[in-house]
Write a structure and sequence with these properties.
This protein is an alpha/beta fold. It has a single domain (about 5-130), classed as CBS-domain, CATH 3.10.580.10. Helices cover about 30% and strands about 25% of the residues. The protein has helices at about 25-35, 55-60, 90-100, 120-130; strands spanning about 10-15, 20, 40-45, 45-50, 80-85, 105-110, 110-115. A four-stranded mixed beta sheet has the order 1-7-6-5. The longest helix has 11 residues, at about 25-35.
């Protein structure tokens, strides 16, 4: 593992996304179907925020919330951590650690080209340490 390598080498390309107007139930089903925990949220075709399975579960669990009628926008974090495809792996890992981000959305201009999550970082760790 080369910590100076660009994040593009380690990201999950073309991640699934969800529209801000979609329901919490829709987003949860999407996450379950593809076994993922983070979805970039789009509004008008552009990145609008990020939502995690934890965010959705927390909002859906509130007594006054009906997840079939409540939108993703009400559960998302508006400020997604974004990086360019050339940002070094180490810089992304440092920032995620410092701010406790669960993911980094990799963008090229306004286009989402990938995502790098804590799961991806753990996978790297396991792949780069030989088992005993």
């Amino acid at each position: 593992m080369d910590k100076t390598a660009p994040i593009a080498e380690y990201m999950t390309p073309m991640p699934h996304t969800v529209g801000s107007e979609q329901t919490i139930t829709f987003a949860q089903k999407l996450m379950q179907k593809y076994d993922i925990r983070h979805l970039p949220v789009l509004h008008g075709g552009e990145l609008y925020g990020i939502v995690s399975d934890r965010d959705l579960g927390m909002v859906a669990g509130l007594n006054e919330v009906n997840p079939d009628h409540t939108t993703v926008e009400e559960a998302m974090t508006q400020e997604a951590y974004t990086v360019s495809k050339d940002t070094s792996l180490f810089a992304v890992l440092e920032e995620m650690l410092e701010h406790k981000y669960g993911s980094a959305v990799v963008v090229e201009g306004v286009k989402i080209i990938g995502i790098f999550t804590t799961h991806d970082s753990l996978k790297l760790l396991v792949e780069n340490f030989p088992s005993a």
